Amino acid sequence: MIDLYTAATPNGHKVSIALEELELVYTLHALDLQAGEQKQPWFLAINPNGRIPAIVDRAEDNFAVFESGAILIYLAEKTGELMPTDAKGRSRVLQWLMFQMGGVGPMMGQANVFHRYFPEKIQPAIDRYQGESKRLFRVLDAHLANNEYLAGDYSIADIANWAWVHTHDWSGVTVDDLPHLRRWLAAIAARPAVQRGIIMPPRAERADPTTVRTMLETGQSR
User: Fold this and answer.
1) pLDDT digits over 46-99, tens only?
2) Residue-by-residue DSSP string for 79-105
3) Cut 0.90: pTM above it
4) Quick check: helix, strand or coil at residue 113?
5) What percentage of the chain carries pLDDT values higher than 90?
6) Are 74 and 18 within 8 A, CB to CB?
7) 199 Cβ partners below 8 Å, 6+ apart?
8) To which H or E segment does residue 6 belong?
9) Where are the alpha helices (DSSP H) in the chain?
10) Alpha-carbon distance 94 to 114, whole Å?
C-alpha cells in the first residue's frame, strides 16, 4: 500500500498517473496548498522541502520518497515497469525525464507565474519563459517526428513530460504548429490510466491570483 500526498498540479499528476498505469494500490491524501498544509510539521517529516507530491511506501517500512522525478524512478524500479532495465534503455528514459525536470517544468512554471499571476505585465519575463517553453516544445516535436514515444516504449519520461506539456494553454504557449507533439499529446491523453490519474485529486477552483502571488513570493507554493 502506498500513501500519495498530492494536489491537482502537473507534478502531482505525474505520480497519480504512474500509480494508475502500474495498477498499484494507493491511498490519496489531497493537501490544501493555499492553507499551507504542505508546510505542517507532519508533512515536513515526509518531505523536508515542503512540496508535493510525496509518497510513503507502507510495504517498505514506511519508506518516504519526495520529488516527483525521484518518485517516478522509485515506482518504475519497484515494479520493473515503465523503464527498461538495460543500461542504455534506462539512460534514455532518464535523459528525457531530466529534460522535463530541468527544462519543461521550470520554464512552464515561470511562464505561468508571469503570464497568469503577476498583476504587473512584465513583458520581457513573459516573452523569456514562453519563448523557452516553446523552444523545448520544438525539441520534443523534432524528436517525436521519428519516435512514437520519447525513449523507446511508453515510459515515465512520457508521463512526466505529458503532465506539464498538456497544460500549454495555461502557460500561453501554442502547439498548433507542432504536429508530432500534438499526436503524442493526444495518444497519451487517450490512455485509460492517464484519464484516471489526471483527476486525482479533483481539481479545486483556481486560486485568486493575489493569493497565488503571495504564496509564490513567500515560498509557500506547491
Assistant:
1) 999 999 999 999 999 999 999 999 999 999 999 999 999 999 999 999 999 999
2) HT-SS-SSHHHHHHHHHHHHHIIIIIH
3) yes
4) helix
5) 91
6) no
7) none
8) strand 2-6
9) 10-22, 41-44, 68-79, 87-99, 105-112, 123-144, 156-165, 168-171, 179-189, 192-197, 209-217
10) 29
17: which residues sit within 8 A by CB, 6+ positions away? 159, 162, 163, 193, 194, 197, 198
Residue 193 burial class via C-beta count within 10 angstroms: exposed 0-12, middle 13-18, buried 19 and up = middle
Residue 124 exposed, middle or buried by CB count within 10 Å (0-12, 13-18, 19+): exposed
Instruction: Give dist(CA 137, CA 133) in Å, integer.
Output: 6
CB 22, CB 82: distance < 8 Å: yes
Cα–Cα distance measured from residue 211 to residue 61, given in angstroms and rounded to the nearest whole number: 38
Those residues with Cβ within 8 angstroms of residue 211's Cβ, 6 or more apart along the chain or in another chain: 34
Across the chain, which has 222 residues, the per-10-residue mean pLDDT values are: 97 98 98 95 97 97 98 98 97 98 98 94 97 98 98 98 98 98 98 97 62 49 50
